[in-house]
From TrEMBL:
Stored Gene3D superfamilies: Mannitol-specific EII, Chain A
Record PROSITE patterns: PTS_EIIA_TYPE_2 (PS51094)
Residues in coiled coil: none
Protein's UniProt name: Fructose-specific phosphotransferase system, enzyme iiabc
Keyword terms: Transferase
Lineage: Bacteria, Pseudomonadati, Spirochaetota, Spirochaetia, Spirochaetales
Domain PTS EIIA type-2: 5-149
GO molecular function, one term: transferase activity
Native organism: Leadbettera azotonutricia (strain ATCC BAA-888 / DSM 13862 / ZAS-9) (Treponema azotonutricium)
Pfam families: PTS_EIIA_2 (PF00359)
Superkingdom classification of source: Bacteria
Amino acid sequence: MLLIKVFNKDAINTDLKSKTKQDAFEELLEAIQNVQPELNTEEALEALTARESQMSTGIMPHVAVPHALCPSARGAIGAIGISRSGIDYNALDGSPVHLIFMLLANPESCSQSLRVLKHLAQLLDTPQFAADLIRKRTVEEIQGMLNLQNLAKAPMLAAG
C-alpha cells in the first residue's frame, strides 16, 4: 500500500490553523472532501468523535492518528496536517499535537486501513520520522518523504 495513494497531495496541509482537536478534524475533513467530494463530512466527524471518545489518538509526543470507519468513504483515504503552533488535542502525554495523520475507511476496506495504520505505526517508531516530517514546509517535501519510506518498506508492504 503506497501511502501517497491514501494521503493524496490535495489532502496534505502543511499549515493547519486549528487550535483545537475538533477544529483540526473539520479542517482535515474539508481537505479529504476535496479529494472525495462524495464523503459525508458530518458522518465522518461523528465517527471520528465516537472513536476519540474511547481513547485519545494523540498516541505519542506531538503526533495524533485519528481514524474511523466511515461508510461514505471510498476505500481508505487520509489527510496529513502539520500545526506549527500545536493543537490542544487531549493527547495521552498531555503535549500539544503538531502532526496529524487522519484516516477514514469504508467498512469494506477495513483490512486496507489496518495495513495503513500498521505502516504508520512502524514509521512513527522510526527515530526522527515524526520530527523530520513536522519540519517539512511543502506538500512536495512530505510526499517525497512518504515515497522514500514506501521504498524502504517495499518488501514488508508486498507481504501485507
